[in-house]
């Protein structure tokens, strides 16, 4: 009887173990994942179904059963082809570097701060951030979307008359590499217009600036949830 409380404490402490962080001392290897602290998202290595010859670092929903829904891919056009021992690590100079077993670097984030002690954290909203010990974020995956926008305080469509962020479709259901279709503002138009593109050809104009906002809509995703999308101009 007197051992029971000890068992409960052990169980609690192991279930509270944080693995949403990557540190210099603890790199991420092939079968490891980072799980955001509320359990919604996972970051790790994956092979698209039916192909085990290419490996990608990505973020997917952690608790949706069935096929994995990938929301972000780090190096979609530069897969790891030798799948034996990839590693995501934080270097001495606080860069975030993906390496393969043959010493190649398919993807890396150069940190703007070179002091040691940076960590990479997978946040509960699905954002991977690289941060200094004092919490300053120096890079985030939300600034580099793949084909998915997650609820996100700021997704810049255009910035100083240049195309800001662009969503680019996967080439196919099993191929995360950049496909022909993308979605962004029209860089050649003086007005803010939002298009899907087939390569460089406009495919469909989704919306145009009306003086207040470019687009918006409330979608009933199913009977119990509502998705609200708003595209507006920042002052
Ligand atoms: C891919 O890997 C899984 C498990 O690692 C294995 O069951 C499957 O047969 C492999 N598929 C191919 C096409 O090699
Ligand atoms: C990183 O730092 C550790 C100790 O601080 C040192 O032993 C190691 O050689 C360094 N690695 C590189 C690649 O500079
Ligand atoms: C993958 O890398 C390992 C370690 O460098 C090497 O032993 C192996 O032969 C490589 N496999 C292929 C298919 O290149
Ligand atoms: C956090 O630390 C970095 C250096 O690592 C420094 O450049 C930055 O100013 C610091 N930010 C704050 C808010 O202290
Ligand atoms: C996209 O453009 C290519 C020509 O570049 C055309 O062959 C293809 O049919 C277009 N796709 C769609 C869905 O319209
Ligand atoms: C609607 O979404 C909720 C929460 O994701 C889910 O539990 C429910 O089964 C869904 N309803 C339908 C009709 O798909």
TrEMBL record:
Protein name per its UniProtKB record: non-specific serine/threonine protein kinase
Taxonomic placement: Eukaryota, Viridiplantae, Streptophyta, Embryophyta, Tracheophyta
Keyword field: Receptor, Signal
Signal peptide: 1-18
GO terms classed as biological process: response to other organism
GO molecular function, one term: protein serine/threonine kinase activity
EC number, as in UniProt: 2.7.11.1
Coiled coil: none
All copies of domain Bulb-type lectin, residue ranges: 19-143
SUPFAM superfamilies on file: alpha-D-mannose-specific plant lectins (SSF51110)
Reactions accelerated catalytically: L-seryl-[protein] + ATP = O-phospho-L-seryl-[protein] + ADP + H(+); L-threonyl-[protein] + ATP = O-phospho-L-threonyl-[protein] + ADP + H(+)
Matching InterPro entries: Bulb-type_lectin_dom, Bulb-type_lectin_dom_sf
Database matches in SMART domains: B_lectin
Membrane topology: Single-pass type I membrane protein
GO cellular component: membrane
Subcellular location(s) of the protein: Membrane
